Amino acid sequence: MHPLLSLVLLVLLGLTTYLIVQRVSSYTRTPTWLLWLVAMMPALIWSGWALTQGNQKPPPSYLVVVPLLVCLLLYWFLIQWGRVSPPAASSTAARDQNSPSSRVVEPTHNESPVLRPIDKAEEQHLQSCFPWSIYYLQNVEYRPQAVICRGQLRSRPEVAYKTIRENVEGRFGDRFLVVFQEDQTGKPFFALVSNPYAKQLVERERSQITRPTLAISLLVATFCTTTLAWLQIAGKFGSSGQPAQLSPDLLVQGLPYALALLLILGCHELAHYLTARRYNIRATLPYFIPILPLPWFPFGTFGAFIQIRSPIPNRRALFDIGISGPLAGFFVALPLLLWGLAHSEVVSMPDKPELFNFLAFDPKFSLLLTLLSKSVLGSVLTAETAIKMHPVAVASSLGLIVTAFNLMPVGQLDGGHILHAMVGQRAGSFMGQIARLLLLLLSFTQLHLMPWAILLFLMPANDEPTLNDVTELDNRRDLWGVLSLALLLLIILPAPGVVTRLLNI
After folding, report:
1. 3-class SS at 299?
2. Are 134 and 259 in a shared domain?
């Protein structure tokens, strides 16, 4: 690779890493620049090797493994060493309007409130908002820009939250957000935090939330880059990195790939958007992320996303928003993949198979892809053969990979939202830590999982609490959550030897 292109890619990686590390900075006192430097150190070491030794000479294995392990452990240690409670809800929301919900701070006893959110006269009105038969209020604690109300829950959580929220809104209007959470002992408490989403602010920002011109422009740009990406994937670029002749006939070959990939990603994000609107949650339209096809990342897009611009009311809404995207993307990708495999060709397995060589694709890295490929292609697919994949099959396979990544039960990924909604915020955060550690261990045997494992360690493990974070899910949603985690395992786990032998693949 040309040194200038390597430098550009390193800068892009640095900017992406910095944006990810910034999301972690609210959980630790460790300086953001130090976390960024530790996270970037393996890439800087490997780039230095490439610049001094050349791209033809790969770095020794110890120079790959040792910096990776040391920097990941150091990154985790620095976060834990400076770990703090999340910042107050109002200041967090004012700094980051993309935050899906509010946080409640539990300061130490050495901290003194700098401001009383309500005065003495209003305190009497506040106490009247808590009927003794619903939630017996015992103690009111003042925090900077928040009021913590502790007592005994005497009704079902959803009834208590609805009643008290309506009472607070009747007394104070939209001045406060009512948050219902559990403390360290599992005892539910209420918190009134300053509302950054007041009606006047909502009206002022309404025109800035849905930006159809921006969404359509990014969609058109991503359509162009994904159309060009098929030329890179299909090996139609020359040694200089450019196609020999960019003709209309050549570009038309990329249309099935581009249309299928945009359909899968668009349905994924549109499902998030429509579910959020169903719960009256403000959200942006889906934004696609275009990128010019590169040798190391030839796919033409980094995916798509929406931004949540108002608090999520409860764990049920959080679950529905989280699971709707992956399921929609999967149910669109599955029939497209089956059709694409049926129109693919079976070729001889190369002597040195590459993981994402779609001209001679070996599906055994994924149990689900193995089963689907064998069911469609039948006996012609053997251990000595590979698949020359149709463009639609390539796009659908990438759609499954995107689905699997989003289902990882970590932080603010869709899987993190699902797990949080199922087991609660604290248990979900703990299980997310275990999940990304297990993925890191698995990545040493399945090297294609290593970038995922690194990215998950850079992301914050905690998910944002909902306003009513106490009411649990129903059994039907719990079942769908278990099925989504099973789908994740089917996609990321390789086909076991006993399966490949039974299928003769």
Report:
1. coil
2. no
CA distance 411 to 420: 9
**Residue 327 and residue 113: Cα distance in Å, rounded?**
45
Question: With 0-12 CB in 10 A as exposed, 13-18 as middle and 19+ as buried, what is 389?
Answer: buried
Range of the domain at 189: 89-203
Tell whether 114 and 63 lie within a shared domain. Answer: no
Beta carbons within 8 Å of 81's beta carbon, 6+ residues apart = 28, 30
| CA dist., res. 371 & res. 433, Å (int) | 30
Q: How far apart are CA 42 and CA 203, in angstroms?
A: 46
Which of 37, 59, 81 is the endpoint of a domain? 81
| Residues 361, 286 share a domain | no
pTM of the prediction? 0.79
Q: Are residues 113 and 195 in the same domain?
A: yes
Please report which helix (H) or strand (E) contains residue 231, including its range.
helix 212-233
Q: Which regions of the chain are under pLDDT 70?
A: 1-10, 12-13, 16, 20, 23-27, 54-58, 83-117, 197-210, 237-247, 294-296
Q: What is the pLDDT of residue 451?
A: 79
What does the angle CA 453 – CA 27 – CA 33 come to, to the nearest 5 degrees?
A: 75
Angle between helices 315-342 and 367-377 (to 10 degrees): 40
448 DSSP assignment: G
Which amino acid, residue 124? Q
Pair (165, 241) in one structural domain: no
Report the alpha-carbon distance of residue 396 to residue 267 in Å, rounded. Answer: 13
Residues 24 and 54 in one domain: yes
**Burial (0-12, 13-18, 19+ Cβ within 10 Å), 95:** exposed
Q: Which residues contact 14 (CB under 8 A, 6 or more apart)?
A: 36, 40, 43
Verify that 181 and 280 share a domain, yes or no. no
Task: Report helix, strand or coil for 305.
Answer: strand
- The alpha carbon of 90 is separated from its chain's Cα centroid by a whole number of angstroms, namely 24
Residue 54 lies in a domain: yes
CA–CA dist 410, 404 (Å, integer): 12
289 has which bridge partners? Answer: 303
Contact in structure between 251 and 227 (CB atoms under 8 Å): yes
CA distances from 334 to 192, 233, 256 (A): 45, 21, 16
Task: Note whether residue 315 is domain-resident.
Answer: no
- In the chain, DSSP finds a helix count (H) and a strand count (E) of 18, 8
Domain count, the chain: 4
Residue 243, strand partner residues: 237
DSSP 283: B
What size, in residues, is the chain? Answer: 505
Residue 129 is predicted with a pLDDT of 92
Which alpha helices (H) appear in 57-192, and where do they start and end?
61-81, 89-95, 120-127, 157-172
Domain boundary among 81, 97, 129: 81
